[in-house]
Amino acid sequence: MPARKKMPANEPTVYIVDDDPAVRDALEDMVESVGLKAVTFGSTDEFLQAKRDDGPSCLVLDVRLPKVNGLEFQAELERTGVTLPIIFISGYADVPMSVQAMKHGALEFFCKPVRELDLLTAIQAGLERDREWRRQRHTITQLQSLYDSLTPREQEVMGLVVKGLMNKQMAWRLGISEITIKVHRANVMHKMGAKSLAELVRMADALASGPLRS
Fold first, then answer.
1. Is the same domain home to 19 and 56?
2. Is the model's pLDDT at 157 over the cut of 50?
């Protein structure tokens, strides 16, 4: 058998967890046939112990696994804040099982045997979803850094600006002059890189949305 082509570490990766070696090999060959990197595991423990690449990824996960089944593992990942797009495959699926998986954020739930086109389409959708999550996390990280560069007073002013208060109202609320408010407001716009009030409001909304998926 020819050696498998090495992929750059930041390339998209499809993780496959299935306790059947034949299924793992078949899925790996299918994924690599379209130029994607595949990494396989025989159990959830193996997956957790492995170092994951720092790039877009998704998880093809069998439901029937030793020790911890796929649904339990999905819940475990959710509790620990690791939210990879998950595509379930199962030879013993039922409606309640698929409903539970989808309710907790699974991208797709397929019964074996899976049509290659359907699974590859789901994998591409999973990788795109993870790319979007990563873009959002990057944006939030940048905004948080800009927000942290504001002084405590500037942060107070920003909070009041995005609530729609006028300079005179903010001056009265904070017990400072209107001229000082204007200086703080200008500093906020400059440090945050906001070109308009609407853009500053969008930034504040993004920061208020809290931590994104990891």
1. yes
2. yes
